Automatic annotation (TrEMBL):
Assigned protein family: Belongs to the peptidase C12 family.
GO process terms (BP): protein deubiquitination; ubiquitin-dependent protein catabolic process
Gene name of the record: UCHL5
Taxonomic lineage of the native organism: Eukaryota, Fungi, Fungi incertae sedis, Mucoromycota, Mortierellomycotina
Catalytic site: C91, H167
Protein's name in the database: Ubiquitin carboxyl-terminal hydrolase
Keywords per UniProt: Coiled coil, Hydrolase, Protease, Thiol protease, Ubl conjugation pathway
Family annotation (SUPFAM superfamilies): Cysteine proteinases
Location of region: Disordered: 320-350
Sequence ranges of Acidic residues compositional bias: 341-350
Coiled-coil intervals, chain numbering: 224-284
Length: 350
């Protein structure tokens, strides 16, 4: 496991963050989508899928402590780009790069094309050092750091309590075989042949089996897919349907092809939804980078000068107590009914 952060920050496990990261490095025509089910139908709707990024809890330095794969490791396969992870906090970016740099159809852009050509003959460990020392990749990665001026002040290095660590790995098809690319391993793991897009059928059970080996009902997992630009994919499908509709109407009359008209309208709505989603992700990424502390300070200062701060603080305390009591009652009711609680968003912090 990597020993230090090397000025690489933690970033959130979020499709908007990873899509922004990919675009920031200069890669064109792809994005990241979060997946809530590994069934074939879900993956079919996202085709073409270049690879999956899987997040799981890292149990410790001992490889046996974390449920892993039993697929054989391939050493020195020149057809597979594999880089060992030599630095902490970089595994999310490294998992994304593992997919992009092994996909023959992705437009990598000048930066990654030059990087891939430069390190092509490097051993896995040196590839990892090359990633960690890339000013461009590191700068884009760190641009998604949350602005939090209280992290250093509030962190107690003497505390015995340790936060859970999470790790990202990649699954992607390469030359007709399904590979698992984990930078903390000695090499890529080959899960066997998968001609065409049959890897989508093969990868689901592999991930599910790995999740099932965790003890204690561990449910903190995350799965994302690197896919082609969804707007481009939907637009191409819409144009194809419009061409089919025009040909059908020319042959059968203007009233023909009602089902095609309906599909075209649905696709137009899907494009609008995707555009709205992107605007939301862009806004969220801007908010992640913004430091609101100066604004909050000035607001509190103004309220104090007007003599309103003390009353608001007391009102806040009363409300917090009421909400805490309400939450305690809901938790007790859920426990009595055998229910569970919500999970937080997980961070890349291995």
């Amino acid at each position: 496991m990597a020993e230090d952060t090397g000025n690489w920050c933690l970033i959130e496990s979020d499709p908007g963050v990873f899509t922004g990261l990919i675009k920031g490095i200069g890669v064109n025509g792809v994005q990241v989508e979060e997946i809530y089910s590994i069934d074939r139908e879900t993956l079919e709707d996202l085709k073409p899928v270049h690879g999956l990024v899987f997040l799981f809890k890292w149990e410790g330095r001992d490889p046996a402590a974390t449920p892993g794969s039993t697929a054989p490791i391939e050493y020195d396969n020149p057809d597979v780009f594999f880089a060992q992870q030599v630095i902490t906090n970089a595994c999310a970016t490294q998992a994304i790069l593992s997919i992009l740099l092994n996909s023959p159809t992705v437009d990598l852009g000048d930066e990654l094309n030059n990087f891939k050509a430069f390190v092509s003959d490097f051993p896995a460990e040196l590839k990892g050092h090359a990633i960690s020392n890339s000013d461009v990749i590191r700068a884009v990665h760190n641009s998604f750091s949350r602005s939090d001026p209280f992290i250093n002040e509030m962190h107690d290095p003497s505390s015995k309590e340790k936060e859970d660590l999470f790790h990202f790995i990649a699954y992607t098809p390469i030359n007709g075989s399904l590979y698992e690319l984990d930078g903390l391993q000695e090499g890529p793991r080959n899960h066997g042949p998968c001609p065409g897009d049959s890897w989508l059928d093969k990868v689901g059970p592999i991930i599910q089996e790995r999740m099932a080996r965790y003890a204690g009902g561990e449910i903190r997992f995350n799965l994302m897919a690197v896919v082609d630009d969804r707007i481009k994919v939907i637009e191409e499908k819409r144009k194809s349907y419009e061409e089919q509709l025009a040909a059908m109407q020319q042959k059968e009359g203007p009233d023909a092809g009602s089902w095609l008209k309906s599909e075209i309208e649905h696709l137009k709505q899907d494009i609008v939804k995707e555009q709205d989603k992107r605007l939301k992700q862009q806004r969220e990424n801007k908010l992640r980078r913004h430091n609101f502390v100066p604004l909050i300070y000035e607001l509190l200062k103004g309220l104090a000068q007007e003599g309103k701060l003390e009353g608001l603080v007391e009102e806040g305390r009363t409300r917090a107590k009421a909400e805490a009591e309400s939450a305690r009652q809901r938790k007790a009711a859920a426990a009595a009914a055998g229910g569970g609680g919500d999970e937080d968003m997980y961070m890349d912090d291995d």
